Amino acid sequence: MSAWPDGYGLRILETVDSTLNEAARIAPALQGPEWILARFQTAARGRRGRPWSNPRGNLTATLVMRPGGAPEQAALRSFVAALALHDTCVAVTGRAEGLALKWPNDVMLNGGKLAGILLESAGQGGGVSYLAIGIGVNLAEAPPADSVEPGALRPACLLAETGAAVTPDEFLGHLASAYAARETQFTTYSFAPIREAWLARAARLGERIVARTAKSETSGIFRTVDATGNLVLETSKGPAVISAAEVFF
Ligand SMILES: O=C(O)CCCC[C@@H]1SC[C@@H]2NC(=O)N[C@@H]21
């Protein structure tokens, strides 16, 4: 396993409501970035207020940090984390085949959703007091296919799809060092190389996709992700630049 990265803390909890809640609780006294790994969460949440199923054996972890900089810059770490997750999946399975990234930050395996990321932050006066990157990976078990909304990706599981039996501790060991390497790339060279690497792993680039918000639906050809992380679709009315949406294939 990779060496644990310098400067990153680790706390392991048997049971917690949510590692994102724990991140908010410990953030005020944080000395440096810290990973929180939970064996079990009683109130795990996913994006858009959905519950997140977290059977034992899957990875449920949050990285909490005080990144400084503007909120828009901090938010780009969702791409940093997605790339680090992709790197980790390649490292633990020994192959990149079947792995892809779905905007903004899902990791897909063989067309299903293997992992999700939920960013939460707080701040005042244009600053970020803390950033929490919550990560769930279906290592051992995927939730039932009928538990996701119509049109959403089917849940996929690393063990069933690849035969790789990886424990949450092993996976986090790789993920922590992969994240630290991508974080250094981000802080040194800014978003450009992260964006390029993300696009090289993007699912459905150049194909028609649908971006849905609570108020609207935009169908178009997925052209790129711009320099600020927005999704860019080519539609019949011209380019659509989308900052937040759920993407459907
Ligand atoms: O909806 C998604 O795709 C994001 C899922 C994020 C789940 C993780 S599990 C660890 C952390 N704690 C939570 O309550 N949620 C995130």
TrEMBL record:
Gene3D superfamilies the record matches: Bira Bifunctional Protein, Domain 2
The keyword Phosphoprotein is assigned to this record: no
Catalysed reactions, as listed in the record: biotin + L-lysyl-[protein] + ATP = N(6)-biotinyl-L-lysyl-[protein] + AMP + diphosphate + H(+)
InterPro entries: aa-tRNA-synth_II/BPL/LPL (IPR045864), Biotin_CoA_COase_ligase (IPR004408), BPL_C (IPR003142), BPL_LPL_catalytic (IPR004143)
Superkingdom of the organism of origin: Bacteria
Keyword annotations of the record: Biotin, Ligase
GO molecular function: biotin--[biotin carboxyl-carrier protein] ligase activity
Ligase is among the record's keywords: yes
GO cellular component: cytoplasm
Pfam family, one: BPL_LplA_LipB
Listed SUPFAM superfamilies: Class II aaRS and biotin synthetases (SSF55681)
EC number: 6.3.4.15
Domain BPL/LPL catalytic intervals: 2-187
Protein name: biotin--[biotin carboxyl-carrier protein] ligase
Species per Swiss-Prot/TrEMBL record: Pseudooceanicola lipolyticus
